[in-house]
Amino acid sequence: MSQQQLRRTPARRPDSGPPPPDDSRRGRFVGWLGGFGCVAAGYAVFQSLVGVLPQELSTDAARYGIAAVSGVGTSVAAWLAAALLRARPVGDDSATTGTRRTAAGPGPTGSAHGLRTGPGPFPALAAATHRTLHAQLAVLDDPDRGLLTGWPHALDEPTRPVRPTPTGTAYGLHLVLELGVQDGRLNPADLVGTLWRLRLSHGGWAARSQGSVPRPEVTALVLGALARAGADPDRLADEAARCAARFTADLEPSGLARTHVVTTVLRGLLRAAPESPAIAQLRDELVDRTITDPARESRRCWGPTLRPTAAHPTRPSPAHTAQAVVALDRAARVLGDEDVNSRSAREDGIRWLLSCPMPEHESCADLLNTQEEVRRPHPQDPWRQEVLFVRHFTAAWMVRALLTPGAWEIAVAEGREEAWRALLTDAVAGVLRQQDDGIWNWDGHDLGRPLWMTYQGLSALRAHAVWMYQPET
After folding, report:
1. What does the alpha-carbon distance between residue 269 and residue 218 come to, in Å, rounded to a whole number?
2. pLDDT (tens digit, 0 to 9) for every residue of the chain, 473 residues total?
3. Predicted structure pTM score
4. Is 203 left (phi over 0), alpha (psi -120 to 50) or beta?
């Protein structure tokens, strides 16, 4: 199915289960037979009463009248009973399921949605993702770096031969670990070895467009994937320390001024070096750089820029606010001593997300994808700039932010459960709508199937599936 066809197809709620089979003809036939059954029951009562009513009644008309009324009444009662029986399975299933959900704990879509009796779409989608990853795995024997196994930035790269990159291979490794496949066709050890071989000579990693200077956001991404795959912790800690030492206002002013870069580095360090002192510093950097939105109850939130100026102001951004909420939530769990300011900023960010004025979110601006540019001085030519184009899968980030434990707690405590459910449901639908056979697509770009988008889409749906799971008791 093409992306254009996907857009024309009305989005079905992801938690509504498969559509019921078309039983309209069968239902009409059963109803027709049921009608005869009701008439038959009424006629039987009529004949019985005619036979048993006493002959002393004044006239035969009276006797037949009583029998006829009783027969019609029996027919109506039988018809109503049949109608109730036909309606009962749906009603009873909803009620029973709702009771089970309430007993098991608060589900994200409430008790109105029942548990599926069959598999949902996620297993088939994940299997399709795995097939494509395996089919497009690139293996290249590089004369300088050795055997490279991985993926490029996007799955529709036009160049041949395809060369694995740090960004594509890191997101591919994340995907392999997210899928949890049980066979060895996609070997995490090969991907880990490739990422180490793609390391720059002085440490760190850079995107393909960034040349030979390590950049903190790419380094943190690779370190996070390596840590998740179980790489050597001492080696990871050494690389993480180098990354943190380079990520300063003097050496990286452009990166430290961007919400995307700071949150990416923070998430990577939390995975690769949870004892790093840079974690608390980056957390405080996020907390101190919030902005206030008068349009939404004067809540604090985040924009693309952490250091706005009069010439370059910032604006509230759902994607960046969701990124900050996710990063601060993970930092709070690792540090274990979340201070009042950090917790207040994170909770305000959640409230800002829940304050979207739109009652329906399927096409509202809060779920639209966005992009930005990260500009840095060119490492060899100070008259030029290094430009990194960053795109944000907003719906996937929204799902991640709303599924943090603090988001649900705030929604319950402040009576925002319905707003939370509506926004989460439409965000999940938005994530699902942007994929085709397990691979996510970014419209309007020459590299329209970036691996980072597939990872973010699949991981968001998996997180939602785990959250939705309610064991039957």
Report:
1. 12
2. 433 333 333 333 334 333 333 444 444 444 444 444 555 545 554 455 455 555 554 455 555 555 554 555 555 555 555 554 444 443 333 333 333 333 333 444 443 343 445 556 899 999 999 999 999 999 999 999 999 999 999 998 888 899 999 999 999 999 999 999 878 899 999 999 999 999 999 999 999 888 788 999 999 999 999 999 999 999 999 999 999 999 999 999 999 999 999 999 999 999 999 999 999 999 999 999 999 999 999 999 999 999 888 777 899 999 999 999 999 999 999 998 778 999 999 999 999 999 998 878 877 899 999 999 988 887 777 778 888 889 999 999 999 999 999 999 999 999 999 999 999 999 999 999 999 999 999 987 777 899 999 999 999 999 999 998 888 76
3. 0.76
4. left
Domains and CATH numbers, the chain: 24-104 (no CATH), 123-468 (1.50.10)
Segments in 136-215 forming alpha helices (H): 166-179, 188-197
- CA dist 218 and 390 (Å) reads 12
CA 229 to chain centroid, in Å, comes to 22
Q: Which residue has the tokens 């996070």?
A: 224
